[in-house]
Amino acid sequence: MNDLPLEGIRVLDLTVVWAGPAATQHLADLGAEVIRVESSHRIPSSTRAQPHLTADLVQRMGMLQRMSFPDGQPQPQPYNRSSSFNVLNRNKLSVTMELDTDEGAQAFRELVAMSDIVVENNAQRIGNRLGFTWEVLSAINPKLILCRMPPLGLSGPYADYLGFGAHFEALTGLTWLRAYPDADISQTSPTFHMDDVSPTVAGFMILGALHRRHRTGKGCLVEIPQAETMLHQIGDVVLDQSMNGRSQPSLGNRDRVSAPQGCYPCLGEDQWVVISVRNDAEWAALIDAMGAPEWACAPALATASGRHAQHDHIDQELAQWTRTRSKQAVFHCLQEQGVPAAPVQDEADTFADPQVTHRGLFKPLHQAATGTYNFPRQPYRFSDMPLRWERAAPSLGEDNEYVYLELLGYTQAQYHELLRRGLAGTEYAQERADAAPA
Amino acid sequence: MDQLFSDVRILDLSDGIPGPFCARIFADYGADVIKVEPPKGDSTRRRGPFPGDVPDIEASALYLHLNRNKRGITLDLETDTGASLLRELVATSDIVIESFAPGHMDRLGLGFEQLRQCKTNVVLASVTPFGQDGPYAQYQGADILYYALGGMNMTGDPGLYPIKKAASMVEHQVGNALSVATAAAFFSARHQGRAQHLDLAAAEVAQTSVDRRVQLLLGHAYTGECSRREPLSSSALPMGIFPCQDGHVQIVTTPAWADRMAKALGRPEFMDCLAKPGGLYSPELKGDIASALDQWLMARTRAEAFADALAHQWPVYPVNSVEDLMEDEHFQSREFWVQQDHPVAGPLTYPGPLARIEDGFALRYPAPRLGEHNREILGAQLGHTNTDLSRFAGVGAI
Questions:
Q1: With an 8 Å Cβ cutoff, are A26 and B157 in contact?
Q2: What is the location of CATH 3.40.50.10540 in chain A?
Q3: Are B397 and B79 in contact (CB under 8 A)?
Q4: What is the DSSP letter of A406?
Q5: Same domain? B182 vs B57
Q6: How far is Cα A338 from Cα B203, in angstroms, rounded to an integer?
Q7: Contact B131 A83 (CB under 8 A)
Q8: Which among A167, A108, A148 is positioned nearest to A23, based on CA atoms?
Q9: What's the pLDDT at A122?
């Protein structure tokens, strides 16, 4: 009685970078058969790692690349060894298929006919060129659910514009709203919040579309215009603009309502704790936790408006108090009094967090290309439905035989002809043999 | 109109941002969501911003944003009558969303085991700061706390303090995660007939954030290293926020896009320098590109830099304020912004659909006034008489 809700559902996964693979990760963990359809001649950037990477090179690149590979070593086959791919593609299969050849396009059409869902997150121009449109795919399979995740949508003047999450955050006001209030905006480093939001909305919409298909028998196109999807995160700021004509400035670490709120230094190098006081009762509890220092007991600070007026002063005093204590000590001391506080964690802190350990946030998976490591699970769990935890991310083309021989029913001779001509494979190949029909 | 969740009823008992945002996403796509508030109302009714900055529990922007498309009733679940009315509602509902401290629903006689007595395949979606169990189960949460646990250490300038994301973005992100998990639990409940208790910890959503953190957790397991605040890249290619004539632009230039940058800047010779061994990390080249870029940007407004760079498929985007955003031609031409009238707050502009789908998003009604649908839902729907309703009010249940 523990079969997962998406068992029997087949997903073709054409996604790249982070948001797309994270979307189909929900489906794979819920039991769907997710098949990544990939090229063995073109490794999309920021998806699987590029074949030429060396240990020397990744040390000179940024933090993400430096921390990407077991012991800092990309080789051999970097495309099977990177953390950003491996952490977002468990329980999925990989087939290589060259969609810009007649053979690849034909195999893909056959797969579409026997699948339930197709997901892609290319800029719409690229998706259109590869034929991932509703007109093309619904003609093959009218029950299909096609989920497209173009960052700026399928229409409008910028529909063909490409970019990363940081670009779309700048365009939509989110960078403006989180700049340092006391330093130049260029000192604000990029974040990639869109990659947090769109995968969950894609998962939600696909589950909704499957549910409706149970009633109607009909498939549909789901468009996730990622920048618009993300704009709901600041719905209250948008309404303030609408109701008061007020373009909100950045508040930095402060809050419109809670005061004080901020990030305070603790013992040790680059160690911090955050504190957020939402009401007068929490302020009183904070005073108790600090041993009722005279500055904090000032009647002017007993109300939120008083604390907002003297926020700079409170920040200085609070920092004096936190600076001589560890972030863990402040965290527990305040939380035990009911005051919201948390340590600013790095990855080592998270692995050592007793709550994380208690709740089993990390679980091991073995992968041939890298070995056995602890991976984070999804941040949700169900009473009567353990999520699937079977297989680490697939190496490139790991499931070619399953897809070509079992699913598509190709003969051994047909399959070996594809291999010989470089139209399927398990290793990155710079050049492709003549793709024209023999 | 046959919306995705037209055949689903949800009781939203949750307070704050994550639970109500999740329920609102279902409501946008057709679910009949009944917002069940304590008699004093949801805490976001007091958070504003308010029209003219005059506090009014019926016109708080945060509440209006999180509760559109819902109907609303008041119930004091601490009273026997309130709890009993809730059980009547559960019998005809599919999903219950709640955000009380762990154990509180059990104490009210409304725990998972009790709710499945009312409805055999009920989904109870519980969202809390740290989850239903463990040493921190009773600890408090807040937006900045969650980000502290999931990426704040690497956000900002190395010489300054860590800085959070804008507004309440991380609490909204928790609501997004709750929505996909709740949809999965509902799918199982409806099509496999199983009751489900969903346990979602906001801290874990942040700790496993796709915005680099989840990759870096595995990266830590791979290398023993930790993230910190440092430039995204040390290459000679421009990466970051740069000033231009009328503000700033955001640039990310990957090696694959270097030729587009060189073309846009009118400096094709940069490609020859980049092609030399070690060229990509050459400090001289970095300086040359930076000064050419500065010259190029200072001759352009944000809009001009955006258009000229994208004409070469090199992504240079304007750093907009919310005012700029709402005037931007792209979102206007897609009719993203939607207008809706509210009886107290008046006509307002809201973000439209999160996603587009045939017979998908619809703006049906604005956020409910406190207890607006008590009579419609407790009376007409549950069949209680006016005398009953007066009695419920008399014992403080509604």
A1: no
A2: 10-232+360-435
A3: yes
A4: I
A5: yes
A6: 17
A7: no
A8: A148
A9: 86
